[in-house]
Amino acid sequence: MYGYQLAKEMEKKSGGYFHLKEGTLYPALHRLERDGLIEGHWELSQSGQSRRYYHVSTRGMDRLDAMLAEWNTFSDAVNRIARPVSLPAYVA
């Protein structure tokens, strides 16, 4: 996807929770590309406008898998604290 398309897709998939502005999105894309986590290439759109399209690199997928595993461990721990399976009886 190109940057604007990516921002719109994230907004749509998050139910409007994520609304990224260019000042946030493009610096993040540039850092991810610099770090080898995504790769970009230029293409001409049907209107003749040049757009930079991005995709996740192999290194980026490996990093994403590691981050998701860490997130799942963290969120499971928070859920065990915030939503215990059974509440203990009230002791006066």
TrEMBL record:
Keywords, comma-separated and alphabetical: DNA-binding
Gene3D superfamilies: Winged helix-like DNA-binding domain superfamily/Winged helix DNA-binding domain (1.10.10.10)
Domain of life: Eukaryota
Transcription regulator PadR N-terminal domain segment(s): 1-65
PANTHER family: PADR-FAMILY TRANSCRIPTIONAL REGULATOR (PTHR33169), TRANSCRIPTIONAL REGULATOR RV3488 (PTHR33169:SF14)
Alphabetical list of InterPro entries matching this protein: Metal_resp_DNA-bind_regulator (IPR052509), Tscrpt_reg_PadR_N (IPR005149), WH-like_DNA-bd_sf (IPR036388), WH_DNA-bd_sf (IPR036390)
Pfam families hit by this protein: PadR
Protein name per UniProt: DNA-binding protein YwzG
GO MF annotations in UniProt: DNA binding
